[in-house]
Design brief:
The structure holds 3 protein chains of 3 kinds. By secondary structure, chain B is mainly alpha-helical. Chain B contains 20 helices and 2 strands. Chain B starts with 8 loop residues before the first helix and ends in a 12-residue tail after the last helix. The chains are: A mainly alpha, B mainly alpha, C mainly alpha.
């Protein structure tokens, strides 16, 4: 049981990652795919941030009387990654808007029939 | 006979390759003025021949001619080096280019062919690459210009532009490119990784002992990789290439392209493996049997063909394997016979192809069954045909006698009696598929009214064609009585000799 | 000051120029400015390569914060070489694109095209020269987002679905890389590449490090379109505008190959990757399958851009095959092919783009009779096509030669034979197109067209002539590739030495046979 509780953050990460990945692969609706992608990326953020926690450490902001800080670097990295994720989601969603305009649908199985696959 | 005394010997190599190339460019430039264009071709061919004569002269004097052009890979580059076998091939090719150009002028005009500029230009390019092959100093250079030859002759094969030409061109390019990339390049790279060098060296470059199996595999890869030698079963490109106009078939597929193939095999045998090494490999015997089979099988197929050019094509396949067999007998005399056969077969076969083209132009006949009584209408052509046929069969007083002679002696020297038998049977087969043609032409198809023949009846081919025919058939005769210069040249090749017990 | 900051310029120049283009607005002005900036980047890349070849590794601390706490830009023979390829192809494609995009991209989006192109260039340059693993991820995403945009700019609506699929797969790939880098960070506490190399093997054998390696390898494989993760490439290159295809085919996947090489040799150490993790065998098998699958698919397509796209999959297989041989000669063959393939594919896609410009279609039927109507374009296609086949005197032959010699040195006779067999398939798919162009008459009712203008022909022919030039005078490319390969193996050796001193274990020496 300790195995599960001690590493609970990793379990959450794995669950989110696989859920997101599964949604990307199996969803037929493009918007759902983007949602899945987003969940997938979020799981990675959780991985980084949770690994940056130092036991007994507080938020990495210099304050009086505090001796232990959590590692600030993962936070910085994830801020960057979040921005990247937001940009990706934005590009994905704008592509979906254009696909909707061009095909009239955002269901994958519906527009795949309309074109020749390569 | 050296007109180029003022030029440094090694630069003659450059000239021999560059002059036809410049000729090709000039042909494009003068394309609109046919007479000027033909004059360019003839001048270029003559100039080339004088250069080759100069190189021959230097070779007899023992002057070394070597040229390093550019280094492609570390320690390996495009290098040229003159050696006697290459000089022999160069002589044959450059001389016959002049004759073929004269023939082609007559043929293309008589047949009202289109795209004549492209024709003469590609011809020059092909000859340029043949010269480069003749004088190549290592396997890489040989390979490069072997491929250039394939590519530059493709437009010639597909000259007619119709469906049949395209199909023939596809087979041609498909077989030649596939064999050269899959087998020849593989063999070259294998040789390079085994020995670290690709330079041609007398006695072979496999100095350290290598596994016999590996060397045997390499030999087989080389033989099949050099698809231009038309060893069965990779011979189909030759009959497929007969869709080309007859001048192309004559020069390229009787002289330049196919001889480049067997020339490459000879060079590999003499300068990469070395005759001694060859004798110790079992693969040599395997290829020998395949070569012998090719000789006999293609002769048999030739007998079944009614189309004259097809019959001559299969005859060429058969004759090429003479040279391959001669090379693989691994005897100095057989190799000499093989080298001589390059020259004698060239003059003989080109005569036959010239006749086929003349028949096509003058009487529009392609099939042998239509050629009864042709001797009355085209006596000169059929006489030339007979001369060429006798040379191919190998009977005196024609040139082919000598090369068959040396091949047979070589087979005896190598203790391969069955090859002697194959050569004899093959000669009988040659008679069977060649002689019926002039016999039909002269002795059959007499007109019902029994009138005696007169010159007025003749409807011969245009004059340039007749000139060309005449020169090559006289050549067959001349080489019988005066083969000495060629034999002297062949005896200069290291390890090769026309005397038994030497080399 | 310029010389001091030269290392940062390949990123800064296009990055700053991109928003300026949006401000500039008008299409031809945008084009001129974009080309100018790309040309500057090309000059900088040239300078950097010269400097690195003579002085050795160039290190630059961004913002003055020194490594390993700050982000470091590290330029050595390997990435300077690839950077030059990327920058020069970018410039040539930009010159070409002025006319090409007139027919393929809606006029209101032209400035977007130039902006996205420059952002992509900035991203690719960043990937190449950064010395920080996370920074690599960031630039990877910058360039990837720009490429998704570029692909979706075409007027054909199929580009949208292609771009979306590319986005999904590409993001998964990049996220995998992020996971891998995260795992490395967990174990070592650093993100700087050199520092990682030092610390990765402090532990004898760590599951975390190996998992990180696995994630990174899979992520990069998606990005470089290694079989079986290549499914995004054919639709994306087929439906993107031709100028975009020309640029991406020459650069994006090559940079990903560089990333794989960098991770294997400089960070993890080739020994660990090849010997302990058996990546060599896996990569070799996948590469060979890629060669055949790609060539086969290319031979059955009717859309010529699709033929070229599948051909790219095969060519990437060749590059990875060189890497997987685990020898200096093999690595050098892979690096040379990065350069050579950029020349070949760039020219081919440009030629096809010219055909589209005139004919409005890139189906193989549209090519009929073009040999006479567009002689220069088809001549360029022919020469570049012969280069793909591997005819001597072209760069393609040089690549194949080095690759097969490297394979034979390792006694992989079968691999060598398979490489040559792949060339035969290339004869088929290139031959079909050439036959249509030169030997078929145009179809009934097909319009007669003229040749394209010099603005499109010039960049095409520069690449084609480079094909021939570097196929004959191989000294420059060979020297650069060889230096890069030796340097990368040296990095591996240093890691080995470190491992020995830490663990006292005997480590097998990487095969280092000079080509």
């Amino acid at each position: 049981m300790n195995f599960i509780f001690d590493y609970y953050n990793y379990w959450i990460v794995v669950f989110l990652m696989m859920a997101g990945f599964y949604i990307v692969i199996s969803a037929g609706n493009l918007v759902k795919k983007v949602v899945g992608l987003s969940i997938f990326q979020t799981s990675v953020f959780m991985l980084y941030i949770s690994m940056g926690k130092v036991s007994g450490g507080t938020a990495p902001i210099v304050a009086e009387g505090v001796t232990q800080y959590s590692n600030p670097l993962p936070h910085v990295l994830i801020l960057t990654a979040i921005v990247v994720g937001v940009a990706t989601t934005a590009v994905g969603l704008s592509l979906i808007v254009r696909i909707k305009r061009a095909y009239g649908t955002v269901e994958e199985n519906e527009f795949e029939d309309k074109d020749d696959a390569i | 006979m050296n007109l180029w005394q003022g030029v440094e010997p090694s630069q003659l190599i450059t000239l021999s390759i560059v002059i036809p190339f410049i000729g090709a460019l000039l042909v494009i430039a003068t394309g609109k003025i046919p007479n000027l264009r033909e004059a360019v071709t003839l001048t270029t061919a003559t100039v080339l021949f004088t250069i080759v004569l100069a190189i021959t002269d230097y070779t007899f004097k023992g002057v070394e001619m070597r040229l390093n052009v550019v280094e492609l890979f570390p320690g390996l580059g495009i290098n040229f080096e003159v050696e006697p076998l290459g000089v022999l091939f160069a002589l044959v090719a450059s001389f016959l280019w002049i004759i073929t150009s004269i023939y082609a002028i007559g043929y293309m005009r008589g047949h009202h062919e289109i795209n004549q500029t492209r024709f003469f230009c590609c011809f020059a390019l092909a000859i340029s690459s043949v010269m480069a092959i003749c004088f190549s100093g290592n396997l890489l250079t040989l390979f490069i210009f072997y491929e250039v030859l394939t590519l530059s002759t493709y437009p010639l094969v597909t000259h007619a532009g119709n469906e049949a030409a395209k199909k023939g061109g596809r087979v041609y390019l498909g077989i030649l490119l596939s064999t050269s990339v899959a087998f020849l390049l593989f063999a070259i790279l294998g040789t390079y990784s085994l020995t670290g060098t690709l330079d041609f060296k007398a006695g072979g470059i496999f100095d350290e002992p290598h596994s016999k199996l590996v060397l045997g595999v390499l030999l087989i890869l080389f033989c099949y990789g050099i698809g231009k030698a038309a060893i069965m079963p990779f011979h189909r490109w030759l009959p497929a290439a007969m869709v080309a106009p007859t001048p192309v078939s004559a020069l390229l597929h009787a002289v330049a392209v196919v001889k480049a193939g067997v020339f490459s095999i000879l060079k590999v045998v003499i300068y990469i493996f070395g005759l001694d090494e060859l004798r110790s490999l079992e693969a040599t015997d395997i290829m020998l049997y395949i070569g012998a089979a090719t000789i006999l099988l293609s002769s048999c197929i030739a007998m079944t063909k009614d189309n004259l050019k097809a019959r001559l094509a299969y005859s060429t396949v058969s004759q090429l394997s003479y040279i391959v067999v001669g090379a693989l007998l691994a005897s100095s005399v057989a190799a000499a016979g093989a080298a001589l056969h390059i020259a004698t077969h060239a003059v003989g076969k080109i005569t036959l192809f010239f006749c086929a083209g003349a028949i096509m132009v003058a009487s529009h006949k392609k099939n042998i069954s239509d050629m009864e009584g042709l001797g009355r209408a085209m006596p000169l052509t059929m006489v030339a045909f007979t001369i060429g046929a006798i040379s191919i069969i190998g009977l005196p007083p024609m040139a082919g006698t000598w090369s068959k002679w040396y091949l047979t002696i070589g087979a005896l020297e190598a203790d391969k009696l069955f090859i002697v038998a194959v050569l004899m049977i093959s000669s009988l087969l040659n008679i069977a598929y060649l002689l019926p043609i002039p016999i039909k032409a002269f002795f059959k198809g007499q007109p019902a009214d029994g009138q005696p023949w007169s010159w007025a009846e003749t409807k011969e081919a245009p004059l340039p064609i007749l000139i060309a025919l005449g020169v090559t058939s006289i050549g067959c005769l001349v080489l019988f009585f005066y083969p000495q210069p060629l034999i002297d040249l062949i005896n200069l090749i290291p390890g090769v000799s026309t005397n038994m017990g030497e080399g | 000051m310029l010389e001091q900051n030269l290392a940062a310029l390949p990123i800064i120049l296009p990055l700053i120029a991109a928003p300026i283009i949006i401000i500039l607005g008008r299409s031809s002005l945008a084009w001129a400015f974009a080309t100018f900036v790309s040309g500057l980047a090309c000059l900088v890349a040239w300078e950097l390569l010269a400097s690195v070849l003579s002085n050795g590794v160039l290190s630059y601390a961004v913002g003055g914060w020194s490594a390993p706490w700050g982000i470091e830009l590290r330029i050595d023979a390997a990435n300077a070489f690839v950077l030059l390829v990327v920058a020069s192809v970018s410039t040539l494609v930009l010159i070409y694109s002025k006319q090409s995009i007139e027919k393929e991209i809606d006029p209101s989006r032209h400035t977007l095209f130039y902006t996205a192109h420059l952002l992509c260039l900035a991203g690719l340059s960043g990937i190449l020269i950064t010395g920080d693993a996370f920074n690599l991820f960031v630039f990877l995403e910058i360039s990837s987002l720009a490429t998704y945009t570029l692909v979706s700019l075409a007027s054909d609506r199929r580009c949208l679905t292609a771009a979306f699929r590319y986005l999904v797969m590409g993001t998964i790939g990049a996220t995998f890389i992020l996971i891998g880098v995260g795992m490395l960070y967990m174990k070592t506490g650093t993100l700087n590449m050199l520092d990682l190399a030092q610390r990765i093997h402090l532990y004898d054998s760590s599951r975390t490090i190996n998992t990180g390696l696995a994630f990174i390898m899979v992520g990069v494989s998606i990005k470089l379109a290694l079989f079986p993760l290549h499914m995004w490439l054919p639709p994306a290159y087929t439906h993107a505008p031709s100028a975009v295809s020309a640029f991406l085919a020459s650069t994006a996947t090559k940079v990903a190959v560089y990333v794989m090489i960098r991770f294997i040799f400089t960070i993890f150490g080739a020994d660990h990757v090849f010997n302990e993790m058996s990546m060599g065998a896996i990569l070799m098998v996948l590469a060979v399958v890629a060669v055949f699958k790609g060539s086969y698919m290319a031979a059955v397509q009717s859309n010529v851009k699709s033929v070229l796209a599948h051909s790219s999959v095969a060519q990437i297989g060749y590059m990875i095959l060189g890497v997987s041989l685990f020898s200096a000669a093999g690595l050098m063959a892979g690096l040379i092919h990065i350069f050579n393939h950029a020349l070949m594919k760039g020219a081919l896609f440009m030629a096809v783009g010219a055909v589209f410009y005139r004919m409005g279609s890139v189906d193989i039927k549209a090519f009929r009779g073009l040999g006479k109507q567009m002689p220069f374009t088809m001549a360029a296609f022919t020469i570049a096509g012969l280069s793909i086949i591997g005819v001597p005197l072209t760069v393609g032959f040089v690549s194949k030669w080095y690759l097969v010699v490297a394979a034979l040195e390792q006694n992989h006779w079968i691999i060598a034979a398979l490489v040559l067999a792949g060339s035969l398939l290339a004869v088929v798919y290139i031959g079909r197109i050439l036959e249509a162009a030169y030997f078929n008459e145009p179809e009934e009712g097909q319009k007669t067209v003229k040749e394209v203008s010099w603005l499109m022909l010039a960049p095409m022919w520069i690449l084609v002539l480079a094909n021939i030039y570097f196929g004959v005078d191989t000294s420059l490319t060979t020297e650069a590739a060889q230096r890069a390969s030796e340097m990368l193996f040296q990095n591996s050796q240093e890691i080995n030495a470190l491992m020995e001193s830490l663990h006292g274990t005997e480590v097998s020496v990487a095969q280092e046979v000079s080509p």
